[in-house]
Amino acid sequence: MTSPDSPVVHLSNARLDRGGRTILRDIDLSVPRGSITAVLGPSGSGKSTLLAALTGELPLAAGTVEVFGKPVPRGTRHLLEMRKGIGVLLQGNGLLTDLSVGENVALPLRTHTKLPAVLVERIVNFKLNAVGLLAAADAYPRELSGGMARRVALARALALDPPLMIYDEPLTGLDPIASGVIMSLIQRLNDTLGLTSVIVTHHVHETLPIADQAVVIANGGIVFSGTPAELEATTDPLVLQFLRGQPDGPIAFDATPRTEAA
Ligand SMILES: Nc1ncnc2c1ncn2[C@@H]1O[C@H](COP(=O)(O)OP(=O)(O)OP(=O)(O)O)[C@@H](O)[C@H]1O
Ligand SMILES: [Mg+2]
């Protein structure tokens, strides 16, 4: 891959358009290797759109995006190759309901590798153990709590040992205890497996304690970039409005509907 001190993700002067509209502009972001970056912002500010640029799902309208030291490719074959290095945990978990927990975690290994069944089983058990769910290997998604299902999805995202993990709203629908479990798991996995993580969320207070850097997006761009401590000390009215969850203030209310399915 690249030299150890080059950033794992680097966006420079990036502009992201959707449905003919500019969602984000002038985006400069560097995600250092081994770090956890929190991308915060109100609903509709463009957090998921930013992630779509990292996975190559949404090509930039302007500027550059590099992942693992190389420009995110546009051709399908190269894109698929790059994506094997990115573990993505989506909001909806995306577990297949007619497959057991173990089979769900095995799916990326069966799809993308030619590993023999015994090895697949060993890797699946290792990943399930990492999220504390080895005992649930034979259960079906409908038998799991929301927190457990999220952990299975996490194990599946880790199946191919991706060096970069991307989490889109990992806490949605979870109670405070399950949220705490997921957050400490994300941190522990990042440290023990030597990963780099980008967490997109509006759960500021749960996420800042495990983040090395924080970025706030609002009004079409980055309005804050710094350490969690710097964010907590901010006096910027726009950032404060978001942190305090106030409806009135400099953040424009997102009132434009999507023009096509997400
Ligand atoms: N496929 C799409 N086509 C057109 N517009 C889109 C599409 N996806 C998102 N948008 C628009 O882009 C803007 C940002 O959406 P995005 O989903 O990135 O926000 P978000 O910060 O992830 O919000 P949330 O916190 O609710 O998940 C919104 O105004 C949305 O309507
Ligand atoms: Mg989103």
Which characteristics define this entry?
single chain, 262 residues, alpha/beta, Rossmann fold, four-stranded antiparallel beta sheet, 23% strand, globular, binds adenosine-5'-triphosphate, binds magnesium ion
Describe this structure in words.
This protein is an alpha/beta fold and 262 residues long. Helix content is 34%, strand content 23%. The protein has helices at 47-54, 76-83, 101-112, 117-130, 146-157, 176-192, 204-207, 228-232, 237-244, and strands spanning 9-18, 21-31, 36-40, 62-67, 70-71, 86-89, 164-168, 196-201, 213-218, 221-226. It starts with 8 loop residues before the first strand and ends in an 18-residue tail after the last helix. The structure holds adenosine-5'-triphosphate and magnesium ion. Residues 18-19, 23, 41, 43-49, 202, 254, 256, 258-260, 262 line the site of adenosine-5'-triphosphate (ATP). Residues 47-48, 168 line the site of magnesium ion.
> Which small molecules are bound?
adenosine-5'-triphosphate, magnesium ion
What's the helix-strand series? EEEHEEHEHHHEHEHEEHH
Q: Write down the CATH class of the domain at 32-59 and 73-85 and 165-252.
A: Alpha Beta
Total strands: 10
Please give the largest β-sheet. Answer: 6 strands, mixed
Our count of helices gives: 9
What share of the residues does DSSP label as strand, in percent?
Answer: 15-25%
Low-confidence stretches: none
User: How far do the termini sit from each other?
Assistant: 32 Å
Helix-strand blueprint:
Elements lengths: L8 E10 L2 E11 L4 E5 L6 H8 L7 E6 L2 E2 L4 H8 L2 E4 L11 H12 L4 H14 L15 H12 L6 E5 L7 H17 L3 E6 L2 H4 L5 E6 L2 E6 L1 H5 L4 H8 L18
Parallel strand pairs: 3-8, 3-9, 6-7, 7-8
Antiparallel strand pairs: 1-2, 1-4, 4-5, 9-10
Helix pairs in contact: 3-4, 3-5, 4-5, 5-6
Bound molecules: adenosine-5'-triphosphate and magnesium ion.
Keywords: ATP-binding, Nucleotide-binding, Transport
Protein name: Phospholipid/cholesterol/gamma-HCH transport system ATP-binding protein
Pfam family, one: ABC_tran
